[in-house]
């Protein structure tokens, strides 16, 4: 039957060439759309590196000079930071609080803005995101170490060191930074001071849409007290014990006056889960619009391809009738028609793969894992594209073929 099918395909080469070209174009466009969706999905589902469940951001305010209740400082920076640390200590001792830490504003997940710097080691340097935080930052967001350290162990490590870094920080130079834990010679903020690396951790992302492969995908966490005095935008982040965060925000706001120290007071309390919802809301809407556009394009592709095979099969009612007259069963006829379609797809797919490869090689599609041409990603997207075309082809052949096979051969051949 295979030889007969190829003979028939050759004899009908003019119409088949047109169909193969259509399949070729559809396959390339379908692959491009699926590849883009694959990248978006992969970025969104990448591990965040943190756990924000039961976490809250406590914003701090301060009384300005000239406002009633303001007291004058002798050393403003030092004294104001001391007042903030006293509030932090009081929050840490609340019965419902598991851990709390002072961070710079950019260290809060789903917050706005990032602070970037350069991490140096020996003669090499790499751009990184810098986050200033106290050691309990690891406990609050349950950040584990690259060597399997618990958040508690990472907290203890940071108490004895100033600098912690993400495990891929020196991948650009093919250096495993985890092997350098405990070694000095690291520099940050270009201040010329040599620092010891206390530990490493998996990548931390700001939000689900942050590309983990961009220039500043890696980060460092620097001990807050080493490099900063409290600034007005630096909050306290809190992890509340499980099943104890009911009315936590209301209770902390109600107790704000008792937690005030000097000129520093609690100005607001927000759930980081709520912050996540608000930050992602706009981006989710943009993604939905993108998915709607991609879905509309895919629907048109599917309907066009479905219609092509549907029309092609309807036009062959007489051929189906002749097969029935010659004793072929319905299964034989259906199998023959589907096999013919599969052969046409098999001819078009390698040609489409060649075009897909050149598109990816020319970096015209989305970047993921630092490349546009990743073997596994390429194979998956091509396979999904081919499977979708085959599915539409089978549906486009099966339904009209079943209807045609129900017609009596004499009626179908009447026009002949």
The gist of it:
The protein is built from 13 helices and ten strands.
Poorly predicted runs are none
| Strand runs, count | 10
Structural class comes to alpha+beta
Helix proportion range:
40-55%
If helices are DSSP runs of H or I spanning 4 or more residues, what is the number of helices?
Answer: 13
Describe this structure as you would to a colleague:
With 416 residues, this protein is α+β, with helices and mostly antiparallel strands. It contains 13 helices and ten strands. The protein has helices at 2-11, 13-44, 76-92, 137-140, 151-159, 224-227, 248-254, 256-259, 272-314, 317-325, 330-361, 375-406, 409-412; strands at 55-62, 97-102, 116-121, 124-133, 163-166, 186-187, 197-201, 219-223, 236-240, 264-271. The strands form two sheets. Strands 6-3-4-8-5-7 form a six-stranded mixed sheet. A hairpin with a 2-residue loop joins β3 and β4. α2 (13-44) packs antiparallel against α9 (272-314), α9 (272-314) packs across α12 (375-406) and α11 runs antiparallel to α12 (375-406). It is elongated and about 105 Å long. The mean pLDDT is 85.
